[in-house]
Amino acid sequence: MMVLRRTAAALLLLGASLLGPAVAWEARAAGAPEAGVTPSAHAWADVGPEAFAKLAADGVTVIDVRTPEEWRETGIIPGAKTIMAFDENGPVRTFPEALLAAAPPDAPVAIYCRSGNRSAAVASFAAKRLGYPQVYNLEPGIKGWVREGRPMTEWTE
Predict the structure, then answer these.
(1) What is the rounded distance in angstroms from the CA atom of residue 140 to the CA atom of residue 117?
(2) Which of 91, 95, 117, 144 has the fewest Cβ atoms surrounding its Cβ within 10 A?
(3) What pTM did the predictor assign?
(4) 12-54: per-residue pLDDT in tens?
(5) Which of 20, 3, 147, 15 is nearest to 87 (CA)?
(6) DSSP of 40-56, one letter per residue?
């Protein structure tokens, strides 16, 4: 599973690098911190649905980086801010600015996508390039959240 996630992140970055340095997001760092641990400054960590729910309840900004089609299909985690990070052409050029506008860069942020792969690439980018002090990635994404029967809300444009 880890090899598959690293391969997916590497492919996303390869596509991003073809679009230019402004959107060449870093691949997920090998050996991310263990799930459930607090990342050190400017690092990120995978967390499960239970820990992710606690982060949201504690007021950490939650960002959903999926596409509008995915938001319509499943809904979103209550209170999540929706900012598309990747489209059919690769990384969305305006994503870094949108993330900085949605979540203070000096505060922790919790990010999710469908399965945890895109959000892992975004988490690495947010920590290493944008300077977020603590970034959390929902592993295994919204699929795991829904599988556990956790709350969802309808997405409206």
Answers:
(1) 8
(2) 144
(3) 0.76
(4) 443 443 333 333 334 333 334 444 555 556 679 999 999 999 9
(5) 15
(6) PTTEEEEE-HHHHHHHH
